[in-house]
Every structure is written in C-alpha cells, then in structure tokens.
C-alpha cells in the first residue's frame, strides 16, 4: 500500500517537473527565429530589393505642405491636447479626419470581403503567452508591446495576435482551408527608441486603428496566398492613386516569425520620402507549431472501405500569413499630402467618396 502511495506521489512530482521543463523548452524555442525563403535578400534593410514600382512622384505647381501643416490649417488634428491628456505620440482626430478614418476602414473592409475574407473584430487585450507564441517578445528590452502590470496580459500591437490565437490548440478539417479573415482592431505600440523629424505627427504613434488580413492554409499553398495578399494591398493602394514600391525585405528585417515579407512604401510628398504603409508576411508553420493549430488532410492515408483512425492521414500544422490592409494614420498622411490643392484644400479620392457621406473635398473652416 505504501509502495503504491509512493509511486503516486513520485508520478505527481515527475508530472510537475515535466510541466516546468516543457515551459523552459517553449521559452528557449521562442528565441529561435523562423527559417527564411531561399529568395530572401541577405543583409540589413538596405539590402531589400524592389519587387514592384507603381506610379511616379507627383508634381505640384505650389509649395507642398506636410500633413501636420495641412491638419492644423484644416483643423483635423490636436496633438497638443492629446499630449496633455495621454502623453506624447497620441492625437485627437477632428472634423473630416474622423470621417476619413471611418471611410478608410469601411472601404477597406468592403474591398477585402469581396475577396472572400470573413470580417472580425478582436479582443485588444491578450495573454502574454499568445504574444510570445506569435513570435513577439512582450517583456524584452526595447519591446514594442505594452504589458499590463500584475497580470499575464498585454495590449495588442496588431490584430495578427488575437486572430492567430483564434484556432489555438485545434485540429481543423482540411476541407475548410484556407480560412481567410479580415480583422479590425485598435493597436498599441510603445515605439521604444523612435524619435526624430522622420517620425513626427501621425507617422509613428502609440495607438491607431488598423485592418489586418490573416490566412490559415495548407503548407503547399502559403506561397500562393502570400502573393494574393500583396496583390490585394497593391490593388487597393493603386485605386487610391498612390505612388508606391513593394519591397522583398532582407533577412535582418524579417522579424522572428516571417519566412518572407513584402513591405509597401508609399510616397509622402510633405515628408519628401517613401514611408512604410503595409507589409505582408508568410510565417509558414512558425506560429502554428507554438499555437498548436493543425489540420486533418481530407484524403485517407491508405485506401479502405470506410474512414477510421487507422487509415486517416495524420494531422499537419497549418501555415499562417498576415498582411496590413489599412493602417489608418499613415494612410491619412498619404491622402492629405498627395491630394492637397493650391488653395489649401484636400480632395477625397473617388473610391472613398461614397463612404464620406458624399464629401468630395476638405476645405478650410470659415
């Protein structure tokens, strides 16, 4: 009897040790980045290659203003009040800028849903473990993640994280893949170390609205869907009349989860440079292994008159992909600076007008 009791207690102790070792193994594994696609340029950001160039630098017959000056003259922002209320890198949108944000969000959602994506809104607070399993380090030095004191929770920096966790620890039927989601959320980023004139105004802020695309698919299809995501982005930015380039990002700029990443940088006349407005990443099975997301291939492993556990193909990890459909503040920068007129007004691009209550132009208040 004592021997049985000792065995039971010993088993409990071993199981506790196993949990601790699994946690340690998970933490060590999370420090290892994904592999990289063989075509990814090797090196830092300067080694990234141009995949596509659309349009040309717009020419103006008058002195160009940046979005800060336009926003002040048209009464669209209030950074000073936000700094008093919340701190630096926060902002109030006012008047037509509010309508422009809503128009961008609704137009983007409608465009992406036409392509078969399921709309979502997501939680904006998630467990730290989910952030880590998606490939981010919430408590590392210079992290971009806001952690909540005395809890195991964080504010999200992107909807990629809660959407990635949506099917955590599950086996999906192969017949329902791909699963395509388009998610609206607010995003929160510490922007640690970000300073200087290049990040002024709306370019780099602590809180913003964003619409994110996310796909769960079979491993052999992820390259195809990566191309689909970047094409959706390029089509939407082209329809807004933006001058932009798509970059195949170099290895040192991929981040831990990405196997390959395409960034889109649009011309911002007031800043006199290209600025990143979106990215599209193929994370292969890097996130799904950590999140425990698998699928059951629909075909049987061995032929048989009926399916059973013995003749079903074993479950495999899905591939995950994510892409920015619209990050609002930088889109507002692009639209104000590219569509400014000599009289100080700003035209609204044609695709957005039905979502602006018929408003075609933003003019000075009398």
Notes on the structure:
There is one protein chain. With 366 residues, this protein is α+β, with helices and mostly antiparallel strands. Helix content is 29%, strand content 24%. The chain contains nine helices and 17 strands. The strands form five sheets. The chain has an eight-stranded mixed beta sheet. It has a three-stranded mixed beta sheet with strand order 7-13-14. A two-stranded antiparallel sheet has the order 2-3. A hairpin with a 4-residue loop joins strand 11 and strand 12. The mean pLDDT is 92.
Structure, briefly:
This protein has 366 residues and is α+β, with helices and mostly antiparallel strands.
Strand elements, count: 17
Distinct helical segment count: 9
Overall pLDDT metric = 92
Spatial gap, N to C terminus: 92 Å
Low-confidence stretches: none
The helix content is: 25-40%
Which structural class matches the secondary elements? Answer: alpha+beta
Mass-distribution shape: globular
Described by its quaternary structure, the protein is single chain
Q: What fraction of the residues are assigned to beta strands by DSSP?
A: 15-25%
> Describe the biggest sheet?
8 strands, mixed
What is the ordering of alpha helices and beta strands? HEHEHEHEEHEHEEEHEEEHEEEHEE
Strand order of the largest sheet: 1-10-11-12-15-9-8-4
Radius of gyration, in angstroms, nearest whole number? 24 Å
């Amino acid at each position: 009897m004592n021997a049985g009791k000792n065995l039971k207690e010993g088993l409990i102790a071993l199981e506790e040790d196993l949990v601790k070792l699994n946690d340690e193994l998970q933490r060590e594994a999370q420090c290892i980045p994904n592999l990289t696609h063989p075509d990814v340029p090797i090196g830092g950001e300067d080694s990234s290659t141009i995949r596509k160039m659309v349009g040309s630098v717009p020419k103006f017959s008058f002195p160009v203003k940046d979005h800060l000056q336009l926003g002040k003259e048209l009464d669209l922002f209030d950074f000073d009040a936000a700094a008093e209320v919340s701190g630096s890198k926060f902002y109030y949108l006012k008047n037509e800028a509010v309508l422009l944000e809503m128009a961008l969000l609704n137009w983007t959602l409608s465009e992406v849903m036409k392509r078969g994506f399921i709309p979502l809104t997501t939680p904006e607070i998630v467990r730290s473990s989910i952030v880590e399993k998606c490939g981010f380090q919430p408590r590392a030095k210079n992290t971009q993640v806001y952690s909540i004191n005395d809890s195991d929770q964080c504010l999200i920096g992107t909807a990629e994280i809660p959407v990635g966790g949506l099917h955590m620890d599950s086996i999906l039927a192969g017949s329902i893949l791909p699963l395509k989601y388009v998610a609206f959320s607010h995003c929160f980023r510490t922007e640690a170390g970000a300073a200087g004139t290049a990040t002024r105004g709306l370019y780099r802020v602590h809180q913003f609205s964003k619409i994110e695309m996310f796909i769960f698919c079979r491993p052999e299809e992820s390259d195809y869907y990566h191309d689909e995501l970047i094409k959706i982005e390029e089509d939407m930015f082209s329809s807004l009349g933006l001058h932009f380039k798509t970059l195949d990002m170099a290895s040192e700029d991929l981040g831990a989860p990405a196997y390959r990443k395409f960034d889109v940088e649009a011309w911002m006349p007031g800043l006199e440079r290209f600025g990143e407005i979106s990215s599209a990443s193929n994370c292969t099975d890097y996130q799904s292994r950590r999140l425990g997301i698998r699928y059951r291939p629909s075909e049987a492993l061995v032929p048989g008159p009926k399916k059973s556990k013995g003749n079903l193909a074993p479950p495999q990890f899905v591939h995950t992909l994510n892409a920015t459909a619209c990050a609002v503040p930088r889109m507002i920068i692009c639209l104000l600076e590219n569509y400014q007129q000599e009289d100080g007004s700003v035209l609204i691009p044609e695709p957005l007008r039905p979502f602006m209550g018929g408003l075609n132009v933003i003019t000075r208040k009398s």
